[in-house]
Amino acid sequence: MLKRNIPILLLAAAVPVIALLPLPDFWIAQLNYIGLYALVCLGLVLLTGVGGLTSFGQAAFVGIGAYTTAWLTLNTGLSPWLTVFVGLGLTAVSAVIVGLITLRMSGHYLPLATIAWGLSLYYLMGNLDALGKYDGLLGLKSLSIGSVDIGQGRLFFVLTWAIVIAGAVALLNLLDSRPGRAIRSLKGGTQMAEAMGISTFRYKVTIFLIAALFASVAGWLLAHFQRTVNPSAFGLKMGIEYLFMTVIGGVGYVWGAIVGAGLVKLLDDYLQVALPALIGTSGSYEVIVFGIALVLVLKYLPDGLWSVVARRLPRPPRTVDWQNAVDLPARSKPAMGELVLHVDKIRKQFGGLVAVNDISFDIAAGQIVGLIGPNGAGKSTTFNLITGVLGKTSGQVTFRGDDISALASRDISRKGMARTFQHVKMIADMTVLENVAMGAYTRGASGVVSSMLRTNKLEEQRLMKEAQRQLERIGMGEFMHEQAGNLAMGPQRLMEIARALCCDPALLLLDEPAAGLRHKEKQALAQVLRQLQGEGMSILLVEHDMDLVMDVCDQLVVMEFGTLLTRGTPAEVQANPAVRAAYLGTEH
Fold first, then answer.
1. What letters, b where the CB count within 10 A reaches 16 and e where it falls short, cover 181-219?
2. In the predicted model, what is the mean pLDDT of the chain?
3. What is the DSSP letter of 581?
4. What are 361's strand-pairing partners?
5. 8 A C-beta contact, residue 398 and residue 347
6. What is the C-alpha to C-alpha distance for residues 536 and 533, in angstroms, rounded to an integer?
7. Quick check: 181 and 438 in contact, CB under 8 A?
8. Which pLDDT tens digit goes with each residue over 302-334?
9. Residue pLDDT, tens place only, 67-98
């Protein structure tokens, strides 16, 4: 853990040293602005870089924090140290309302919605008499502690950067936690995360809120640093600049926020002086330079400048400190032979197309049931109906006596049903251990705040211990610290099975786990399936590889054109002429 925190420790040590150095006040003021911008960019790293949600409206949240403290201190005499909390409250309410409305959108609609939000607040601030219209509010006092005036210089620098460091530590702690792994899953789509029991929409609103709160604190500091507020600092232009800084620095990296804010601020000031002198005429030529720079960065360094550093500073392996952690509580398991899953005449229509037509079958505890059929038979659709990914047109699915027909996939996962995917779904830049630990999401309880404050350490140790146990259970313990994206297809599929097992399921659903595997890897997969069955696991297997299916399955359900063709043991199915004609082939 110490190696991971070296940049934090270096920055924390540098702040008091810089404050004591005989630097000109101009450079202290520049560093103050960089700190204020970096605070907003930290929120964008979480929202855009990690969560995959693009927002141009962060400057509006900066404005809420700034205008709240300005109006309250000027009109009520309330201490600025209290107005920050009022600003955070107003920002939270605004962010939740805007988030609930806009975060259900996807594609280009979300950025457009945040632009509309930013413009609306900008014109609201500029037209309200109480806020001074476009002239703003003047005459604010600087921050002070007792008789000590923090002012705009070195004490303000120490305060600003202490908050930036605290924010960076909080984000790093969050990303390395149970909710952090859930947040990191958002960028790749919602299907995998929802199947792990994660409410993706709730986490989208959460990171939108956190980014807004970071911006609000920056606005509070900015108001008392400049001692005046007006709408020009909170318009769409600044919203674009904050995103620009984050992308240049490295939108997926916490340290990219600081690098981007520093680089853009310093270059902006330099170019405003150098370019008119070079060209011989005045104008905002720095905007042209930044536009070209952004195109070049997106072309040649799409992950930002900090990605170059990150590649040369490989992430050290996680310290294994969970040997003595208490095991996670186990779910109750059905007795051998007990009915686990009952599928009763489930049906799915897409308009006039009947994809699944009244399919019924059962799975008992300790049984491996294969769902087979030609391409287009409706196997994957049936699989998705059972796991809640798709809604059923009619029919009923009962899991351990409970009707789960109307439940979402995340709620079904919480009941003890886990699945893998036809095309491997994972977070490539996380380790194998962290990917597998996502499967235990429903078995933990730590929230965002406890993760940011690092009070969730004991639960994290329990989750990591469970992830390691499941990897070793299927013979992948040696890959624990490997980056998931570096694995070959076979180990990736085994990793998905380990992740599903972390849920401690009563029923494991595997969607074409042998697809793309070599012969030896298929043999290893078959051995894992037999091992799991021997431990009492119930398995529903959708698979095209007939050798594997006939080798490991106790019962087979054969589909053709969305209908049930037959059910029976592998021997019975092989001997069925209708099956041989439809799928396995016939002898001439």
1. bbbbbbeeebbbbbbbbbbbeebbbbbbbbbbbbbbbbb
2. 90
3. I
4. 343
5. no
6. 5
7. yes
8. 889 998 888 887 777 888 889 999 999 988 888
9. 999 999 999 989 999 999 999 999 999 999 99
